[in-house]
Amino acid sequence: MKILCLILIVTVLFVAAIATYLIRREQQNNIGNKFLRLIRKFDSWQMLR
């Protein structure tokens, strides 16, 4: 019974760690996309000048 509980706890922590990693990676990609979009806007504004 103790082993089953321990396995369950380890599995839950492992899934939580994977979810945290995926969310953090997605947020970093989102920040990179925003930065690239800002650079494109600046480039187009320089072309118009």
Percent of residues in β-strands: under 5%
Low-confidence stretches: none
| Share in helix | over 70%
> How confident overall, as mean pLDDT?
86
In DSSP terms, counting alpha (H) and pi (I) runs of 4 or more, how many helices? 1
Query: Structural class of the helices, strands and pairings?
Result: mainly alpha
C-alpha end-to-end distance? 73 Å
DSSP, total strands: 0
Shape: rod-shaped
The main pleated sheet reads as: none
**Radius of gyration over C-alpha positions, nearest whole angstrom:** 21 Å
Order of helical and strand elements: H
What does this molecule look like?
The chain is mainly α. The protein has 1 helix and no strands. The model has no long low-confidence stretch (mean pLDDT 86).
Q: Which descriptors apply to this entry?
A:
single chain, 1 helix, 49 residues, mainly alpha
What's the SSE blueprint?
Blueprint: H1 2-48
Summary of the model, kept short:
This protein has 1 helix and no strands.
